[in-house]
């Protein structure tokens, strides 16, 4: 079930095989897609432009990313790209389990600095829509977890930014002893929210 803060009641939107549930912040969505099971296994439409547009994700996706993290407790994030290459991300898990987190960095947003989080797994099949203007990250809860996500803008290293995953001002409960987090050098050095360049 979704975890998060705030008190906006969840509401569901449906189109075809897709159901989207709002989260406690305006913008991100938790999405499930119908699974067709038979004797051979399972089939799903992982993405359909028609149905995703109908539930509120009109963006065009231009790149598909995939990562595999060996260890449980691997934290990737928090990451975002600034304008003109801000990215929306449609995130799902192909193998294993993560806690997926989106932090609102939209300058004019009443929920600036707040976050939502939800467990995505290969077993539950849930996806998280992380709109442009949000920082995104996840912690793996199983070894060899594979995450796949479609993005709405190409990778632009000059516009790529990180935010400290463990910034206390964000108040994110990663369910992890920080000393045991597996991190990239980039993420270990990431600035806190208060130290981000105001130009982002
Ligand atoms: C994100 C990205 C990285 N790379 C390269 C740069 C680097 O050498 C290597 C690993 O990059 P990173 O360390 O940034 O990978 P990673 O920490 O997995 O970064 C990702 O984290 C998650 C949470 C996100 O939301 C993504 O948008 C992305 O930022 O891959 C690309 O070539 N294209 C890309 O789109």
TrEMBL record:
Subunit note: Homodimer.
Give the function comment from the record: Catalyzes the epimerization of the C3' and C5'positions of dTDP-6-deoxy-D-xylo-4-hexulose, forming dTDP-6-deoxy-L-lyxo-4-hexulose.
Catalyses which reaction?
dTDP-4-dehydro-6-deoxy-alpha-D-glucose = dTDP-4-dehydro-beta-L-rhamnose
Q: What is its EC number?
A: 5.1.3.13
Q: Which NCBIfam families match?
A: rmlC
Please state which protein family the record places this protein in: Belongs to the dTDP-4-dehydrorhamnose 3,5-epimerase family.
Give the pathway. Answer: Carbohydrate biosynthesis; dTDP-L-rhamnose biosynthesis
Protein name as it appears in the record: dTDP-4-dehydrorhamnose 3,5-epimerase
Keywords, alphabetical: Isomerase
Q: Which GO terms describe its molecular function?
A: dTDP-4-dehydrorhamnose 3,5-epimerase activity
